Write the structure tokens for this entry.
Amino acid sequence: MHHKIVVICMLVVAIATTVVQSGNHGEQDEAVVALGRRLFYDPVLSVDQTTSCGTCHQQFAAFAHVDHALSHGVYGRIGTRNVPALQNLASRRGFMWDGAIEHLDMQALSPLTSHAEMGETLPRILEKLDSVGWCRTLMTQAYGSPDITIPRVLRALGRFVATLESRSSRFDRWHAGQDTLAENERRGYDLFRAYCASCHNGIDFTDDSFRSNGLPLDSLLMDHGRERVTLDEQDRYRFKVPSLRNVGRTMPYMHDGRFKRLRDVLAHYAQQDDLADHADPLVRSIAPLDDRARKDLIAFLLTLTDEAFLRDTAFGEKEVWE
Amino acid sequence: MLEVLLSIVFVVHSTGNGGQYTLERAQWYVGNVELHAIDGSSYRIAGYYLLDTDDPQSLRLELPELLPHADYRSLSFTLGVDSLDNHGGPREGALDPMHGMYWTWSTGYIFLKIEGTASASPQPKKRIEYHLGGFRAPYNNIRRVHCAMTSGQEARIVVDVDAFMRTINVAQTPGVMDVRSSADLIDQAVEMFRAP
């Protein structure tokens, strides 16, 4: 009996090891991440060499873009969506507000080539990377040979953003019994569990589903959300339930950045008469939230700020250039 | 006496159907080719080729030297990229997104591109652009193409773009760029591939 269990365990370990190895193709993970980080902060990847991933994804804002409702790309071009935070992506199932992208290592193709973001072509990116000295060196350290290829660039960017892990907020410490929450924060947490956790569920406060939280359509943007991906009318106006980690730093809010402050977000959920027809029933069942309830909820949301993450030098830009 | 099969050559047939359209470029993926011999045996060549009329050499697929000697009478291949390869991470070689055969705003490869101009096209400069591909439930545009072949050193497959264009109402559909519209045309595209 005991023997069997041991054998099964060994088998599982053996299988797990093979999977990891075959996934890596002999890559040096740390060096791949380092390459990804260098690329993330380098504006050379954009058509006019002004815009890096880090231009839109700022560390102090949990890699969202503070104060920009819609993204700003090369030549001052304005995009159609709000820049989301980048955190705990390895635990997510789909990427972008509508889940259009299923594989994190493929995600970078979109900003690199999108007209309103970095606006570059893949052949030109290779040419430019070929002409900078550091790229071959970092490629060799990461992949064992100096060849510069698009799949290598994509994998490195994907690996770097996958390391952006935020799980050490005051709330996490309280949850682990290592810190305290004030009474108003506790009350906020109770309200959150009652009204918000139906969608903002799990360790990252998202259930990874696509829903409508009742925002009326912006008639200029005409963003139909998830429908564009699934081509299913039922998904019209549905967007990804976003993680709420570091939400105190990622303003403005929602897929189109329509709310500047958390106060505005709470007013949206509390004033049920403004909800669009397509609002999910789970939003409709939120009880009217009075002023104190809203403040308590905000106090709770602010406990999700992870100062260590926002300052972690392993993710920062400064050290890249030193 | 059997001759050794050395290569598969794709021959693009595009006369313009009497001035109705002009083909500028066609590109398509050929994946996991399988050769079927008269004795019932078959031989599979795993992997992908990207064929491109701008690169005539790419239209000739050289087969592995160690191909078993047999009387091959038909072949089959995936027109496009099978679902497992479609949803993995970035790939080198023929599947490198560099080749522009990937929809960047949504996960998935373009399986076949036919581009040119047509007199009936309402698009600027009379452009026509058919980009077919994608695999996302409920739309699955992955197809296997089956073709008869004559024995010899070189198997030939005709890519009859004329036939494809005859099935399309250009004024109504001058272009296709997503998985759902691809679903309407993919079976016509499969019909394009035939023995000479």
User: Anything to note?
Assistant: Chain A touches chain B through 23 residues (CB under 8 Å).
